[in-house]
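Predict structure. Chain length: 111.
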Amino acid sequence: MEYVYAALILNESGEEINEDNITAVLEAAGVDVEQSRVKALVAALEDVDIEDAIETAAAAPAAAGGAAGGAGGDDDDDDEEEEAEEAEAAEEEEEDEDDDAGGEGLGELFG
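Prediction complete.
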C-alpha cells in the first residue's frame, strides 16, 4: 500500500512519478524498498491520469450511497469522505498488487 501512497504523494505535490522519486519517498518513510515493485507501479501508472482515476473511484461509492447523504452536505465532510474513499481504493489496489505478486494486474486497476 505504501507504494501507491508514495505515487499519490508525488502526484499531489506535482512531482514526476518515476522510480527515483517513488524510491526517495519510500526511503524517507523508512520503507524497505523492493525495486521490482517500484518498477511495476511506475509501468502500471505510465498512461494513467491519476486525478481521473481518483475521481472515478470517489464517484462510484458516492453514486451508490449519494441519495442517502442529504442535500445540505458540508464541503469539509465531502473532502474527508473523499480522502477515506481514496485510502480505501488504495488499500484495495495494494491487495490486488500483492495477489498478482508481480504487479501484473495493476494496469487493469488504472485503465
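Summary: The mean pLDDT is 77.
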